[in-house]
# Entry
Amino acid sequence: MSDIVILGIFVADTAYRADRQPKMGETILGTSFVLGPGGKGSNQSVAAAMAGGKTSIITRLGKDAFADIARATWAKAGVTPHVTEDAESYTGAAYIFIENATGNNAIIVAAGAAGRISVEDVEANRALIEGAKVFITQLEQPIPAARRALEIARAAGVRTILNPAPAAPLDDDLLALCDIVTPNESETESLTGLPVTTLAEAELAADALLARGVGACLITLGERGALYRDRTRSVHVPVISAGKVLDTTGAGDAFNGGFAVALTEGRDVIDAVRFGCATAGISVTRPGTAPAMPSRAEIDALLACGS
Ligand code: RIB
# Structure
């Protein structure tokens, strides 16, 4: 049994650094290329395990070399995999453009086998979900699977977190299954139709999501940190910097993984947000996604510096 159970995808990240993105029909020279483990669900599971959480991932892989990268990544981080092998598909990949000047990114994900995660895959792991303290999912795998897993978790009294990434239209009854949603600014804009360029706008957008039935809204705001808002409190937690930003890819995953660990330890939700911010703050100083996730000792040291 695991305290943190994550439903989501693994893909191989193919990360290209360049000064800018090519225009359609144009070829430009990049400055580097790295192949490594990715996928939001997998990244979040690695972040949680590295931060000290007993963590499982439910997913689907092909039978190929990228699947071997997934298994090696989870073994190294201490994540327990619950994998449906899918010989009729392939383990997916992500194209990641990283802008040299800022470390910001743009991503295309082809989920492959994980894009075929089914309600049956979820049902096969029902007891695992019911035994968790925190359940997390995202929107890179089919939504019916996410919905079923959220229903199982909610019925068992497990705390439910939806990281609605990438943004997709969601029914209110699905949002009502979520104790906490963790969109970034652009995902919040897509979900609500409201602008999120200031803290005041983020608060209004959070209210719109609360009105649609979520228990709490936790909006990640890039270099401005995060906003936590529920029906009784609204708290802005500033970014916790660990140094120069090199690569922001996977920062949201680091945040979600760290946040979940702190919740399972019984910390107050705002303390858990700070723990998530510290986890993300370290991850952005390093290249890559899963390989950038910090250890528990590193997170504790950064939080101790700031307190
Ligand atoms: O959140 C970052 C992740 O999004 C990358 O690892 C990429 O694979 C995409 O899923």
User: Anything to note?
Assistant: Residues 269-283 form the longest helix (15 residues). The chain is about 35% helix and 25% strand.
